[in-house]
Sequence to fold (183 residues):
Amino acid sequence: MSEVTQLLGAVRRGEDGAVDALCGILYQDLRQLARARLRPHQRGTMLDTTSLVHESYMRLVKAGDVDISDRAHFFGYAGRVMRSVIIDFARMKQAERHGGNEIHLTLNTEIAHSVAASEDDLIQLNDALDELAKVDERMVRVVELRYFAGLNEQEVATALGVTDRTVRRDWEKARLLLRAALK
Fold:
C-alpha cells in the first residue's frame, strides 16, 4: 500500500495530522494543479498559485470528515475545492469592481467595457455548471475533474467508477451544453 493510500485511510479515520501529512506529500502536485487552473485567468488577478493551494488546504482541513478513497478521488475533491476558491475570489473581485455596497454610477461606458472580464467568465461558468447539475450531476463531476482538477480520462473514470468511454461521452456532452449556456 502506498504512503498516500495509508494517509488517505488515516484521514478517513480522523487521525490527527493526517491531512497535514497528506497535503505535505502532495503539495507539489497541488501547486501544479493550481497553476494549471489559474493559467487561463492570469490576466489581472491577484490570486496566485500559492494562495490558491493554501486557501484550498484550509478548506480541506475545515471540511473535516471527507470520504476519499484514493489519489484520484483526492485530486477530484481538491479540484472541486479549488473551483470553489476561484469562484469565491472572482465574486469578491467582481463585487469590488462594482463598488461593493456603494452606489454604482458609470459616467463613461467605454471604461466599464475595458475592465478584464475573467472573473465574469468564471462566475458564468460556475452558474452554468450549477444549471448542468440539475440535468446530470455526473457530467458536472467530469467537468470538475477534467477542467478544475486536471485529471485525464482514465483518472476521471477511476474516480467516478465508470468507463473511460463514458467519461469521453459525458465530457463532449457537457462541453456542448456549457458552450450553449455561455453564449
